[in-house]
Amino acid sequence: MTEKKRPNGRPPKYKPEYCKGIIKYFKEFEGFPTIAGICVEFGVTKQTIHNWCEEYPDFLDAYTRAKHIQEQNLVSGAMTGKYNPQFSAFFSKNNLGYKDKKETDMNVGGQKDNPVEVTITFVEPK
Predict the structure, then answer these.
(1) What backbone torsions phi and psi does residue 90 show, to the nearest 5 degrees?
(2) In percent, how much of the chain has pLDDT > 90?
(3) Given this model, what pLDDT does residue 122 score?
(4) Orientation of helix 46-55 relative to helix 57-80, angle to 10°
(5) What are phi and psi of 112, to 5 degrees?
(6) Hey, is 96 helix, strand or coil?
(7) DSSP line for 111-126
């Protein structure tokens, strides 16, 4: 990929090898890999990571794959007891787009085969 020329300011810290670096970090990190952790690893901020995703399609692809690795790691870790269930639920809802699912039975009788019949009669006011 050719580097974009910027009219002003310092050259970007971005390096094409960061695409492999982010995948490697998320696959091999001993604890729970995070975007904050990769920022420390690369010496940049979260905003820089997000800017790179907008400017470099190859990095966006690597970032997306890294987030999938993170999700897989979290789900399998939560199911095997590696991660605290409350942490796993919190992280999933706040970072991965998961939601609690609520189901409501709108059948008044509570049984699908035995519905309750309701008759409404309108009375004209006197």
Answers:
(1) -60, -50
(2) 60
(3) 67
(4) 130
(5) -70, -30
(6) coil
(7) -TTSPPP---------
Angle, alpha carbons 104-100-73 (nearest 5°): 150
Q: What is the DSSP letter of 83?
A: S
Name the pTM for this structure: 0.70
Spatial CB neighbours of 73, under 8 Å, sequence gap ≥ 6: 26, 32, 33
Tens-place pLDDT, residues 76-104: 999 999 999 899 999 999 988 888 877 76
The dihedrals phi and psi of 105, each to the nearest 5 degrees, come to -90, 110
Asked if residue 53 lies in contact with residue 46, where contact means CB atoms within 8 angstroms, the answer is no
Amino acid at site 61: D
Name which of 62, 83, 74, 86 is nearest 34 in CA terms: 74
| C-alpha pair distances (Å), 110 with each of 64, 103, 107 | 44, 13, 5
The CA–CA distances, whole Å, from 67 to 17, 34, 119 equal: 18, 9, 54
